[in-house]
Design a protein that fits this description.
Blueprint lengths: L2 H10 L11 H10 L1 H21 L4 E9 L4 H8 L12 H8 L2 H11 L4 E6 L5 E3 L6 E4 L12 E7 L4 E8 L2 E8 L3 E4 L2 E7 L8 E6 L2 H11 E7 L4 E8 L2 H58 L10 H31 L4 H7 L6 H23 L5 H50 L3 H32 L5 E9 L8 H26 L6 H7 L4 E6 L20 H14 L16 E7 L6 H13 L5 E5 L7 H5 L7 H5 L5 H4 L1 E2 L5 E4 L8 H6 L1 H13 L2 E5 L8 H6 L4 E7 L5 H13 L6 E7 L36 H6 L7 H5 L4
Parallel strand pairs: 14-21, 15-19, 15-20, 16-18, 16-19, 20-21
Antiparallel strand pairs: 1-12, 1-13, 2-3, 2-10, 4-9, 5-6, 5-10, 6-7, 8-9, 11-12, 17-18
Helix pairs in contact: 1-24, 3-14, 6-7, 6-8, 8-13, 9-12, 10-11, 11-12, 16-17
């Protein structure tokens, strides 16, 4: 590998040529460049916030605070009556919140607490405002008791004649309808009669709208705008809030929600007490039935107990047995009287009755029945003898009825007498039995029954007491919640939030501005200013060349000779002075004194202005009374003869091949001490010509005759010729163009500088707009008055045959992730 190959390899290895820092100068430039767009974004964001605040309907929020008792109705009932059970779980705030947001609450609100069947709005130019309650200037009434079925349909109403007449307009699909009516008069709307009455005479200048809501729409509205949250779990408080388009409406609905919640919680408790009472009543009835059965068992046991086993008890048993015998006889006698009375009441035959009476022990009743029989016989005889009623027959009949009644009464009296005797005997028997069982230690069967009777009696008393307590608790039932803060809505709407909207718009504007800056920063991969160049390279910067704005040039020109006092000329003088301060050493490392200085001007690609810089730098040096020759070594795409206004029939290529001499190829310029040699005919092998020994002899001959040799070299980023030329010069100059040369080009120059192969290499920033000026390089000549010259070069610039497609892509910046775009490698 020869020295040139090593130099090219060093040039190709540019991994260590970039910095690892954020380019603040580039960022500052991007920000300044886009200030107008940033301001426009912020203004548009502000306009957006204004329109949002202006057009968004106002939303008001009402809030209330309730304190809840965390016990269920069942648990409260159990605690009140001393019932404990692990199955009674403590009520939760969440269950109360679920009750508030349940469909039961919504239905209660709709059915009986507030009318939400119609929405009213005042139609405005910018936005509509919702009306509610007293703020609604008209009233709707329904003669049929039924509202029109056109739900979810807006009706626009316009009053005229101080509210006396009105016009309603609405639209169904593509069809528009208009209804005219008078205040207080019936109209037909959607097939349903409707009366609209105005409340004010100042309605003519305003337009209103109303909309009928279905039940499902109202429930959806309540569910959407109702919010319940736990405010303080330790204090057992929940906050209920509701949002609506009208402040009064939000408060009214929240009051209805509080009322519905209070009613439902109270009804839930009352239902528990009602069910408890039903249960207690049923148990009392069961207990009474059981007591009655036990009492009957005791009575039956008392009367039917066989005392023959207790004969040894003595006279008490005999007395009880005698009394029981008498009791049975009385009961049998009583049954006879009852049967006889039944015959009389059934109007049976007196003969049959008289026969049955013979078994009675009471002779007076038997005698009365005999007499009654005689009267009945006499009455029948008279009735058969006379066809019509007579006084005698009637008298007999009346006597018969009277005697029959008296007999019946006598039988009743006899029954009562028997009942009294029976009761007396039963009491006496009970006493004797009690004495008897006391003497023998009591009846075991009776004791069991008495024990059960005592238990049921206690249960009955307990149930009765509980019934009284539950009834009193039911009468004193209260709600499970207490309203701590009554419903209240601020006059300031919660939406739109002005300050939040403005803050969001500013944040969006800033965010979009940052995105804009970031995109421009990442897309801007070109050198833009002196500070940018200084941050990208450590090479000596000879100076800056301002934009040439005097005229637009299609090719480079020598301009310093025509306007030597211009800022452009001063810029080249500054570069000439800086070149004089650069120390030039010979091959032995000794400083050269008063020897011919060889300068080459190159760039990475064509179009960066190397020919313009070389020709004008040569011209400004020549204007300092030095003999200067400029040689066009860009043998593939020569341009120097165009800049100097000469021809290119012969030149450097013909000298290197030995066809012409230097004297034959020298051409004159506008500056007497400046001559140039054009490139000559384009050869097929430019690199070989420059590598030949003829090139060294060619330079030596020029050194013998001229003070300064200015070489216009080919772009080193496209061909190798420029690298070859740079090995033969004292001051290599690298040209980059502002807003044209990519940052990677500076990395290439840095590689050349860091390699140490090219001493005294320096760089010039060309075509700098006046806004970026010279920084510390100002000359005091006021602002620049020259603009950019149009080079019109493409990247390849005629060098397609020497570089492959991959070599040409090498100098284009490879796409990288954005973080590598911001923080470049060092």
């Amino acid at each position: 590998m020869n020295d040139f190959d090593k130099e090219w390899e060093d040039f190709d290895n540019n991994d260590d040529s970039s910095t690892n820092n954020l380019d603040l100068d580039k960022l500052e430039f991007v920000v300044k460049k886009n200030l107008i767009y940033i301001a426009l974004i912020l203004i548009l964001s502000g306009i957006g916030a204004f329109l949002y605040i202006r057009w968004t309907p106002r939303i008001f929020e009402a809030k209330t605070l309730n304190q809840v008792k965390l016990t269920s109705s069942s648990q409260e009932f159990a605690e009140k009556f001393g019932i404990t059970s692990s199955s009674l779980e403590e009520g939760k705030l969440e269950s109360e919140m679920a009750l508030i947001t349940s469909g039961v609450t919504y239905n209660r609100i709709i059915d009986s607490l507030i009318d939400l069947s119609v929405d009213y709005h005042s139609v405005g130019d910018v936005r509509d405002s919702e009306l509610f309650g007293n703020s609604v200037p008209f009233k709707l009434s329904y003669p049929s008791g039924k509202q029109p079925g056109l739900t979810n349909q807006r009706f626009f109403i316009q009053f005229t004649d101080q509210g006396k007449n009105y016009t309603i307009k609405y639209k169904i699909g593509e069809d528009e309808f208009t209804v005219y009516g008078a205040s207080g008069k019936q109209i037909i709307l959607g097939g349903t009669p409707l009366i609209i009455s105005s409340k004010s005479v100042t309605l003519d200048n305003n337009q209103y709208s109303f909309k009928f809501n279905s039940r499902s729409e109202i429930i959806s509205f309540l569910r959407k705008n109702l919010s319940v949250m736990i405010f303080d779990p330790r204090a057992k408080t929940i906050q209920i809030s509701f949002t609506a388009g009208n402040q009064q409406k939000a408060v009214a609905i929240l009051e209805a929600i509080n009322k519905a919640y209070s009613q439902l919680s109270r009804e839930g408790k009352a239902l528990v007490y009602e069910r408890a009472l039903d249960y207690l009543y049923s148990q009392v009835d069961i207990t009474k039935d059981s007591l009655n059965k036990l009492e009957n068992q005791m009575r039956a046991l008392s009367y039917s107990k066989d005392l023959s086993a207790y004969m040894e008890a003595g006279p008490i048993v005999d007395n009880i047995q005698q009394l029981e015998k008498s009791l049975n006889e009385l009961k049998n006698e009583k049954k006879k009287y009852q049967k006889l009375r039944g015959f009389l009441e059934a109007d049976s035959s007196i003969v049959y009755i008289q026969a049955y009476a013979t078994i009675l022990t009471d002779g007076s009743i038997t005698s009365s029945l005999d007499e009654l029989a005689k009267l009945e016989t006499e009455a029948l005889r008279i009735k058969e003898s006379y066809t019509t009623n007579t006084i005698a027959s009637n008298s007999k009949l009346e006597l018969y009825k009277k005697l029959r009644f008296e007999v019946a009464e006598s039988i009743k009296f006899a029954e009562q007498f028997l009942n009294e005797n029976i009761n007396d005997l039963q009491k006496e028997i009970t006493k004797l039995r009690s004495v008897f069982f006391q003497n023998i230690g009591g009846d075991p069967d009776l004791k069991k029954i008495e024990k059960r009777v005592a238990i049921y009696t206690n249960i009955s008393d307990l149930l009765t007491n509980k019934m009284i307590e539950v009834s009193m608790a039911q009468a004193s039932t209260i709600e499970s919640s207490t309203v701590i803060n009554a419903p209240y809505a601020s006059k300031i709407p919660i939406l739109p939030k002005k300050f939040v909207s403005i803050a969001i718009s500013i944040a969006i504007g800033i965010f979009l501005s940052i995105i804009l800056i970031l995109i421009n920063y990442l897309m801007m991969d070109k050198i833009s200013s002196l500070k940018h160049l200084e941050r990208r390279t450590t090479m000596p910067i000879l100076g800056l060349i301002p934009k040439y704005i005097k005229e637009e040039m299609q090719v480079s020109k020598l301009v310093v000779s025509s306007d030597p006092k211009s800022t452009m000329s001063e810029a080249f003088r500054s570069i000439r002075t800086n070149l004089d301060f650069m120390v030039t050493e010979n091959e032995n490392g000794e400083v050269k004194n008063k020897e011919t200085k060889v300068i080459s001007v190159t760039s990475t690609i064509s179009g960066e202005g190397k020919t313009f810089v070389a020709s004008n730098l040569a011209g400004i040096i020549a204007m300092s009374d030095k003999k200067v020759v400029m040689v066009d070594l860009d043998l593939r795409k020569p341009k120097v003869h165009l800049a100097m206004g000469g021809s290119n029939t012969i030149g450097a290529s013909s000298i290197l091949v030995g066809q012409n001499t230097i004297e034959e190829c020298l051409q004159e310029t506008e500056v007497p001490t400046l001559k140039y040699i054009s490139a000559g005919p384009i050869p097929p092998n430019p690199s070989e010509l420059i590598l030949s020994s003829n090139f060294s002899r060619f330079l030596q001959q020029l050194k013998d005759e001229f003070d300064v040799i200015m070489l216009d070299s080919p772009p080193i980023g496209l061909v190798t010729d420029g690298m070859i030329v740079m090995r033969h010069v004292d001051n290599p100059i690298y040209v980059v163009r502002a807003d044209y040369s990519k940052q990677s080009f500076i990395d290439n120059a840095n590689n050349l500088y860091k390699s140490g192969k090219f001493k005294n290499i320096s760089i010039i920033l060309n075509s700098v707009p006046d806004r970026r000026s010279y920084g510390g390089y100002g000359y005091g000549y006021g602002s620049m008055s020259y603009s950019a010259y149009g080079y019109g070069y493409g990247y390849t610039y005629g060098y397609d045959s020497d570089l492959s497609e991959e070599d040409m892509e090498y100098f284009d910046e490879v796409k990288k992730p954005f973080w590598k775009k911001i923080f470049r490698k060092s």
